[in-house]
Structure formats: C-alpha cells, structure tokens
Design a protein that fits this description.
By secondary structure, this protein is mainly beta. The chain has 2 domains: about 1-55, no CATH class; about 60-105, no CATH class. It is about 5% helix and about 60% strand. The chain has 1 helix and 9 strands; from the N terminus they run αβββββββββ. The strands form 2 sheets. Strands 5-6-7-8-9 form a 5-stranded antiparallel beta sheet, with no helix packed on it. A 4-stranded antiparallel beta sheet has the order 1-2-3-4.
Length: about 110
C-alpha cells in the first residue's frame, strides 16, 4: 500500500453501517478509500481497497434540478452518497439514502 499511497497523513471515516465502514486515507502520493468489513460484534473481518484517486484529481460536483424547486447533489469530497434538497412547508428538506432532515425556516 505504501508504494501506491506514499506516507499516510490522515484517515477520515465517513460511513458506518451494520456490516462495513468506509474510510478515506490521505497519503503523500494519493488518496485511497478503504472498505472495512465487520462481524456481528463490530470486529474487523477484512480491509480492502475501495477506490483510489490521484492527489491532484478533481472529484466533480454534480447538481441538477429534479422537480420544482428540488436539487440533486453528488460528488462529495469524502465519498458521501448523493442527496436531494427540496422545499418543505416547515423549511428545507434534505433526503439522503432514505433519511430525511428538515431544517426549520429562519424566522425574521
């Protein structure tokens, strides 16, 4: 791994599920995403490469309208899944992988 990534500078976990975790490793030569498989007790079963990026490689941000007032966003720096932002009667709704968050409207 050292030949590919160089010296490791930092690790950034960005997703934890019941069965695996995703971690981004920043090295002196490249950026490497790792997938860490977990057992029922959350102990590590295995670690594998999940994607690799050159340090100067841009990860493109994608945004396009999906419905009236809604916006689809993808291409986040740390590998987060795409999300959709749309208006809601109580404020602004953010939907990502089935999860919903409503940010209350700012009161004047």
């Amino acid at each position: 791994m050292k030949k590919k990534v160089g010296d490791a500078h930092s690790l950034h976990p960005y997703l934890l599920t019941e069965h695996y975790a995703l971690v981004r490793m920043y090295g002196s030569e490249a950026i490497l995403d790792l997938i860490i498989y977990l057992d029922e007790e959350k102990k590590i079963k295995g670690i594998f490469e999940h994607g690799m990026y050159a340090l100067n490689q841009e990860i493109p941000m994608i945004a396009h309208p999906t419905a009236e007032g809604s916006l689809y966003l993808n291409g986040f720096l740390y590998g987060e899944k795409a999300l959709e932002i749309s208006p809601h009667p109580e404020g602004l709704m953010i939907i990502q992988e089935g999860r919903k968050l409503i940010l209350p409207a700012k009161e004047d």
